[in-house]
Amino acid sequence: MNIIYRAREFAFSAHKNQFRKYSNEPYFVHPCEVAAIVSIVSSNENVIAAAYLHDVLEDCNISLTLLKQEFNIEIAKYVRELTNFYTRKKYPNLSRTNRKLFEAQRLENCSSNTQTIKLADRICNARDITQYNKEFSIVYVEETKQLLPRLNRGSTLLQNILQDEIAR
Questions:
Q1: The pTM is what?
Q2: Could you tell me which of 25, 122, 125, 137 has the fewest CB atoms within 10 Å of its CB?
């Protein structure tokens, strides 16, 4: 079975019974959108598979070991790099501003493929948040403006699309 298809099915199963915060649509729509955007700029099957899986470590009861077993080390590496290390749960005393700053600094050192997936993720999130939560979109856009220069190894096309999204 194709690795992209396997990743899609794995993500679908992992995210079942989860819903998007702002739109209340099934969560699985989000990784599908991220993978579709990544597919515009990359034909690398591992990168597209990781785009489907990008939230499973952070939002599901999935381990890095399981990802390595089910897929491969490269996909697991990308997903791990995409997993937000500075969460409110792990660092309850850090302000949101500091958590986002530390996460941006961490992402700056990630691979170009990871940064490309992150750009696609931010594009999707920016579209949803600006559509469904105008108040929070102001915060999200500012955070994205701070993050964008640090994702300079990711796809230039996606950098430009994200820049256009946050300019609106």
A1: 0.94
A2: 25
